[in-house]
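Q: Predict the assembly, please.
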Amino acid sequence: MGRKRTKSGKIRLAEVAELAGVSPITASRFFRNPEALSVAKRTRVESAAKELGYVPNLAARALASQRTEVIGVLIPSLTNNVFSDVLRGIYDASEGSRYSIQLSNTRYSILQEEKLLRLFLAQKPAGLIVTGIDQTAESRAMLQAADCPIVQIMEIGPDPVDMMIGFSHYDAARAAIAHLFEQGHRKVGFVGARMDPRVQRRLDGYVSAMKDAGSFDQRLVVTTATPTSVTLGGALFTDLLAREPDIDAVFCANDDLALGVLFECRRREIAVPGQIAIVGFNDLEFMAAAVPTLTSVRTNRYEMGKTAATMLIDAIEGRRPEQPVLDLGFKVIERQSSSARRSDSRPAVSAAGAANKMIALPSSHD
Amino acid sequence: MGRKRTKSGKIRLAEVAELAGVSPITASRFFRNPEALSVAKRTRVESAAKELGYVPNLAARALASQRTEVIGVLIPSLTNNVFSDVLRGIYDASEGSRYSIQLSNTRYSILQEEKLLRLFLAQKPAGLIVTGIDQTAESRAMLQAADCPIVQIMEIGPDPVDMMIGFSHYDAARAAIAHLFEQGHRKVGFVGARMDPRVQRRLDGYVSAMKDAGSFDQRLVVTTATPTSVTLGGALFTDLLAREPDIDAVFCANDDLALGVLFECRRREIAVPGQIAIVGFNDLEFMAAAVPTLTSVRTNRYEMGKTAATMLIDAIEGRRPEQPVLDLGFKVIERQSSSARRSDSRPAVSAAGAANKMIALPSSHD
DNA sequence: AGGAACGTTGACAGCGCTACCAGCAACGAC
DNA sequence: GTCGTTGCTGGTAGCGCTGTCAACGTTCCT
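A: Predicted assembly structure:
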């Protein structure tokens, strides 16, 4: 009877055990591995816990068990729509599990990422989700040495640290360009912002596709390190036009830029797709609502987050996936903005319903 | 010498203390209240910690001190742009502090919020940020009873639980309508989605302004419980037009809807603002880039999040703000989409509205 | 029947840190 | 000189839980 009972009605495991008529350790087991208890004790502990409104003390649990039930998530941006979809998937998957999400923002800096990684690892997380495959050597070493499962998301590549889920931005960009060529467009510009590694790989895909077609010209590429925005799309497009007035299509590294290009075309009274075709990337919701509807490359962001968290939790609990690297693929969603060249110069003003009819069409991939 | 040293080179406070030649408790104090140490010991502990690469064990700290350094954040949506800006502010403010953010998504359900609140409170957070002022009675009681600072964000109202930061959605909507009236628009429709409490209060503001002008008609209001989207903006506007073909303006409860209305106008070849004026809400980035540029009500979302977290941390550390309720106000950003009915007049600069916080900006561009 | 194997339960000893209080030196007030 | 007072330091005793291992009863096998 060493310990005095805590004054306020604070419910500890000991209280639950007492009410249930079992030892504290048995009650403890109930919460971690109910199957290990006999049915009789299990129900007794269960009802005792419910009656007292017991909530386990996570700090004590973490201290005693030498591990936490925290999943660390490192993403480069909180405001980018792409990541908010991924995050939603992660949070949805973690809900109902015992794990909680600890989120940190690397702001597209791999040095910041390294710093945060060190911080996270020191707290022995149950698992880790990191963005992309471009880490510092030091970060990579820490990840390799970490004794928890790790999922890299957003893209796939060689040498996964552990698990990996994403798609090939390179292939996706190539598919977008292939689509434009199929529609008869030849002089295709590239507009990109931020130029993080994934955007860079989209650019690489664009370059390779253009070179394959014998159409590559460095002057067709306009990029900036500035963070992306709709306004920026218009500005970059303006630059592109000043350099190469006779382009017939623009591949935008993301949808915000594509929307900016569309507005800039409207401002300049350039017909889309009559004079210039537009293709975006990610297929955000507004792409299907725009006039004309905007072609984009659909990426499965929500699913990516959800699957990543699910894989991670499974791995934490010892159920490692048969497939540690998962390619979620992409789809080129063909819409009005990239339709064949010969169409008249007015944008197709069609019945509201017709716009979304073009959805579908898996491409070279997936 | 009771305890054996942990086998692997795990650095505990005891190791730091030993190297520094002080007792563990003195080393502990160094991390919590360095000023309490003599300068000599302070520097000794500091260099010892650095030399060993000591990282405190947060679980042990939380267990021993009976409190955590976690700030709980409850928001209704992870994908809504509005909240991602707020979140960014919160994360930015928490960075560099000792506090970490624990985020949960209520999905616009106050029952879910209550459940999450119970979960959070059980872990004794250092502070709490909750969205809005509409909680269940039970939630409110828990918040009142919580022994940590609490900030309600996104809006202001009577009876703050503790601290509060936001603005009046009601006044903001009234200001938007006042602006439309100043520009000569009379038959103003309302388009709203999701209809969460804050959107509802925007609707209330709209209704009151319209009634003041003697122009209110229930048929001018089109709403749905469906989550918002650009596409939905077009659909709701279509409904509105079918009911009231001769409206001359639309006030949209958010910018996504406004963009959808703009596209729908384009699809139907309705001139904006010639035939129909459009006003949105929140002033997302794309509003200034659209063609025509779209008028909106600017809200200080990033600042709201940042200030909320800063106030909260200050309160946790005993520096309570002199002003527990902070009204961040709003601004009607006047752009082309709402300019005066006659085509030759340019957007006017006006100081409209009831709220003294409100400042109308000149503009058409940002 | 005897023993092994299994399933179930409990006792004990911490996990790494901090709250609390006691101790000690240095200093000023009387 | 004595007494408090202040500033700094250390010892003790947990915080609430779980890992480990031992002990027990039961079942199954030979």
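DSSP finds twelve helices and twelve strands in chain A. The interface with chain B takes residues 55, 57-60, 62-63, 68, 78-79, 81, 84-85, 87-88, 91, 100-105, 119, 122-123, 229-231, 233-234, 256, 259-260, 263, 266-267, 285-286, 288-291, 349-350, 352 of chain A (CB under 8 Å).
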